Amino acid sequence: MSRTVLVLGGYGSAGARIAELLVRETEARVLIGGRQGSRAKLVADRLKRQYGEDRIAGVLVDAADPRLLRKALEPVDLLVVASSTTPLTAAVAEAAVQARVDWFDIQSSTRKLTTLRGVRDAIERNGCCFITDGGLHPGMPGALVRFAAGFIDRPQRVRVAMLFNLDWGALDLPPETTAEFVDELREARMEVYERGEWVKRRSWTTQPIDFGRPFGKRSTVPLWLDEIGSLPTLYPSLQDLSVWVAGFNWFVDYVVLGVGLPGLRLFGDRAGPTVAWLFQWGLRQFSRPPWGSIMLVEAQGWKKGRLVEFRGVVSHRDGYDLTAIPAVAALLQYLDGSIRKPGLWQQALVVEPRRFMADLERLGATVTYDLDVQTGKPVHRAPEAGPEARRPE
Ligand SMILES: NC(=O)c1ccc[n+]([C@@H]2O[C@H](COP(=O)([O-])OP(=O)(O)OC[C@H]3O[C@@H](n4cnc5c(N)ncnc54)[C@H](OP(=O)(O)O)[C@@H]3O)[C@@H](O)[C@H]2O)c1
Question: What is the CB neighbour count within 10 angstroms for residue 64?
Answer without folding.
Answer: 12
